[in-house]
Amino acid sequence: FAELHTAVVGLPVAASRVLPGLVLRRDFATYCPAGGDLRAVLVTEPLRPALSAPGVEFLVDSEGQYQASLCWIARRTEAVVKHLQSNNIKLLLSSVKQEEVVIYYAKLHSLSVVECLSAEEMTLISEITGVSPYSPSSDNLRGEITETTVVTFCQPLLLGSKRCVHIGLPSMCAFEPHCLILCGPVDGVTEQYAAALQGAFTMLQQLFKTVEQ
């Protein structure tokens, strides 16, 4: 329930509504509008490649080596983003904050990015779509990326003064995700409505469970 409702303070209760899809309580790191169904991928690690493996010390002896290292990182990062583009991926949903160089190349190659998603949001999206997070490798940038899902829409959403991301996800089961937008003049009111609705849904779950048994 926590990931399927969003509280908005400062609006009348009558502004509450139900929206299809999911509302992610983050703004786009970069947004590139695109029409029709979009392919999306989940990631849980930075797309920017590291200069060395974990536990390995990387030494730079001169300014020239440092600049060359930065150029190498930029080229490899662009290669990763181009690999996503070649697989027709238009949306990157990331649980980690991506480096500025990733956002730069994403914008350059028309890839929308949402970052810093919670573990609960990532898990919910995986459960709804049936896909696992993609693990990018700068050493293997050929072939099809299979861990993708189709997003039926992807757009910014303004709730009060907060910018969010609104996406439509096809479900792998009978569950069709919708999100509750609960509005109220102050935090206390929206919290009361959320608690009351969660209690009502819990009661309905218990009722249907009893009927099924």
Automatic annotation (TrEMBL):
<dbReference type="InterPro" id="IPR042619">
    <property type="entry name" value="BBS10"/>
</dbReference>
<protein>
    <submittedName>
        <fullName>BBS10 protein</fullName>
    </submittedName>
</protein>
<dbReference type="GO" id="GO:0051131">
    <property type="term" value="P:chaperone-mediated protein complex assembly"/>
</dbReference>
